[in-house]
Specification:
Rossmann fold, seven-stranded mixed β-sheet, four-stranded antiparallel β-sheet, globular, transferase, methyltransferase activity, Class I SAM-dependent methyltransferase
């Protein structure tokens, strides 16, 4: 992955602005001008019945990868569950903490608390596309989970298997057409900067990658226009001797003192 999502998605001004207002329009834009609408209003609202049904399936301590503004972290925290959100966007972490959840500004590919001991990892709202390399992401999630742990992923509503470079853009000046190559709609990346790798996967594509990576499917379902899959690793793995228990809120909090300020939960600032 040549471009770090931490410096692109995480630094996207339109994304931070959308989280502050709680509304879009906001898009991922491919280099050919094709736009994928992002559901900012839903993400900034409280967990809805579809979300809550997914959270009912969670086991043990939960890591929400790409937690966004934190609706799922806040819902699980309100249920008394041990949960941590991670996101590369400082605005997203801020929002999550304001809702009462724990969150770190961190990429899933960076060191994380509780590695090898999480009961459930969530990849919701299309986050199965993080990094643009589904196999690498699945391998990373397997190292985060405890042996036999659960991955719940939300997949695309259509059968797609696509990798591309994208930018986060808003709707300013777009009119009714796609954004042209020289006008970025007030997004990151004018002149070629800020693009980052992303993937879109339908459930069949996710299951193909998962099968090759040693995962066992344990469920798939559709609610409304949203589709989900649940997976477990086939082979138990030994947790790293240096991994921290994920079922301890105190140990999650202890990461604050050992990381630079940019990595601390906002609540600790």
């Amino acid at each position: 992955m040549s471009t770090s999502p931490v410096t692109s998605w995480g630094g996207a001004g339109p994304y931070a602005a959308a989280l502050r207002t709680g509304r879009g329009p906001l898009f991922l834009r491919r280099s050919d001008g094709w736009l994928l609408p992002l559901e900012v209003e839903r993400w900034c609202a409280r967990a809805d019945p579809v979300d809550r049904a997914v959270l009912d399936r969670c086991e043990g301590a939960v890591l929400d990868v790409g937690c966004g503004p934190g609706r799922l972290v806040a819902e699980l925290a309100a249920r008394g569950r041990t949960v941590l959100g991670i996101d590369v966007s400082e605005a997203a972490v801020d929002h999550t903490v304001r809702l009462g959840g724990q969150a770190l500004r961190r990429s899933v590919f960076e060191p994380l608390p509780g590695e090898g001991r999480w009961g459930t990892v969530l990849l919701m709202d299309g986050n199965v596309g993080i990094g643009g390399d589904p196999r690498a992401l699945l391998d990373r999630v397997a190292r985060l989970l405890r042996p036999g742990g659960l991955l719940i992923a939300e997949t695309a509503a259509v059968d797609v298997d696509e990798r591309s470079e994208v930018r986060v853009v808003d709707g300013t000046g777009m009119g009714t057409g796609a954004i042209g190559p020289e006008t970025d709609g007030h997004g990151v990346g004018a002149g070629g900067d800020g693009a980052f790798p992303w993937a879109r996967l339908g459930t069949p594509a996710l299951l193909r990658y998962a099968g090759r990576a040693g995962w066992r499917p344990v469920g798939q379902w559709t609610t409304g226009r949203r589709r989900f899959a649940a997976l477990r690793s086939r082979s138990p793995r030994s947790a790293s001797s240096s991994a921290e228990p994920a079922n301890s809120t105190a140990l999650i909090s202890s990461q604050r003192a050992r990381k630079p300020s940019a990595d601390r939960p906002v609540a600790d600032r």
